[in-house]
Design brief:
- The protein has about 270 residues and is an alpha/beta fold.
- About 45% of the residues lie in helices and about 15% in strands.
- It contains 12 helices and 5 strands.
- A 5-stranded mixed beta sheet has the order 3-2-1-4-5, with helices on both faces.
- Strand 4, helix 9 and strand 5 form a beta-alpha-beta unit.
- Helix 5 packs across helix 6.
- The longest helix is centred in the N-terminal third of the chain and has 17 residues.
- It starts with a helix and ends with a helix.
């Protein structure tokens, strides 16, 4: 109707007669596609940094180029129950004191041997009606995934079980991760120290400092998770476990390994 009247009357006259605010005629709502993309990015960041509140998540989004404010991020996090998940993760683990003693030990480090450096990371997987979480622990030199775990909760066992699984086979010189509370719990840190493992941490807000684990997560998402729909937790755990153990470790060639699989590369290194 406004377009038809606009041929005979000015915008000001139309707004005065109809009682409209002039700005409403020029308002362009945010697209649903942008809103969904923003939700997805917030979910990824919340899973990666479970202790971050809406202010830190907003800062990460701004660095990534999203034009978004604190209020909008807080609203989306609350609507998706992500704020609650952050609080729950903090309450279920006891953080280790003395964080300041650990630095990023991978800067300019020549990684040249097996079990020199293990890296860990967490990601989320969307099911039909819920999210689940995947933790992985990889040896950087051989690219072999030493341990993994799938869980409904961002709690200590999500990372502790892969560590225990991996330590039953071998012990690294350095363990590297981000500063997620699961990696800094008293039990997790005590386990590392008890085995004489040096602790290395990426700085907060710098995911690229955990790049080896980030690339592993990206491969898992692109070559398994994004290509499938899981009906439930059991199916997701089975399919993800099959990909990690049977495909990634044993069948997938890596350019960094001269296009050998991690199993082939490790066998060659040990022979």
């Amino acid at each position: 109707m406004v377009e038809a009247l606009h041929t005979d009357y000015s915008v000001r006259q139309i707004c005065e007669v109809l009682g409209f605010n002039r700005s409403s005629l020029y308002y362009q709502p945010k697209s649903n596609a942008f809103e969904q993309r923003l939700r997805d990015e917030i979910e990824k960041l919340s899973a990666r940094y479970p202790t971050y509140g809406y202010r830190r998540i907003t800062q990460l989004l701004l660095r990534m180029g999203y034009a978004v404010g604190y209020k909008r991020v807080a609203r989306l996090m609350k609507a998706n129950n992500l704020s609650v998940a952050v609080k729950r993760a903090c309450q279920t683990t006891e953080s280790f004191d003395g964080l300041e003693q650990w630095v990023n030990r991978l800067d300019n480090l020549d990684i040249c041997r097996r079990n020199q450096v293990w890296v860990g990371d967490i990601t989320y997987v969307r099911l039909k009606e819920q999210f689940i979480y995947v933790a992985v622990l990889m040896d950087v030199f051989t690219r072999m995934v030493r341990g993994w775990q799938v869980s409904r909760h961002l709690t200590e066992p999500l990372t502790l079980r892969p560590l225990q699984q991996a330590l039953s086979q071998s012990v690294p010189e350095i363990h590297h991760s981000d500063q997620g509370v699961q990696y800094l719990s008293t039990t997790y840190v005590s386990t590392l120290i008890g085995h004489g493992i040096d602790i290395s941490l990426a700085h907060r807000g710098r995911p690229w400092e955990n790049g080896y684990a980030e690339r592993l997560i990206r491969t898992l998402k692109e070559e398994e998770v994004h290509l499938n729909e899981y009906d439930d937790m059991m199916e997701a755990k089975q399919r993800i476990g099959h990909f990690i153990v049977q495909v990634y470790n044993q069948k997938r060639p890596h350019s960094a390994l001269g296009y050998l699989t991690p199993v082939e590369f490790e066998q060659q290194y040990l022979s």
